[in-house]
Write a structure and sequence with these properties.
69% strand; mainly beta
């Protein structure tokens, strides 16, 4: 019981005001071409429920198309237990697209949902699905994230 209590206290601390997390993610962007993605993010808990999440993601070149996306999202975390939480997200995006000689920069918006398991007091594992609203380049994206919390 003592170990469970200690584990739960550490797990709960992952979404407390002032806490941070650095994460690595792998995923897939369901655009017309279909690109694998790799990215990093930083999460800062402004309150126990609300956090800001800047990130950078690379859409790996496929059929001549690649991109970089810089996002600033906000999450509102609902703790379902000491071990699990989920969150809706919304934010803004700036993306840089390249396909052969074609280069394009676009502003956009993100909406989505995510969930995370607090594996230990320092490690979380999550899944995030979002929709990128970008002129002529709208696409859904799915990613798995592993984060280190401090």
């Amino acid at each position: 019981m003592l170990m469970l209590t200690v584990f739960s206290i550490g797990a709960y601390a992952q979404t407390q005001q002032g806490q941070s997390s650095f994460g690595f993610n792998l995923g897939y962007n369901f655009n017309d071409i279909g690109n694998a993605t790799v990215g990093i993010d930083y999460r800062y808990c402004v309150t126990d429920e609300f956090r800001l999440t800047p990130s950078i993601t690379h859409l790996i070149k496929n059929d001549g198309l690649s991109a970089w996306a810089i996002d600033m999202n906000a999450h509102y975390v609902f703790k379902l237990s000491d071990m699990f939480g989920f969150y809706p997200l919304a934010g803004l995006s700036l993306s840089f697209w390249k396909a052969g000689p074609w280069d394009e920069s676009r502003f956009g918006a993100n909406i989505g949902l995510g969930g995370e398991v607090y594996a230990t007091d320092r490690v979380s594992v999550g899944l995030e699905a979002k929709y990128n609203i970008i002129k002529d380049l709208d696409a859904a994206a799915l990613a798995v994230r592993v984060g280190y919390n401090f």
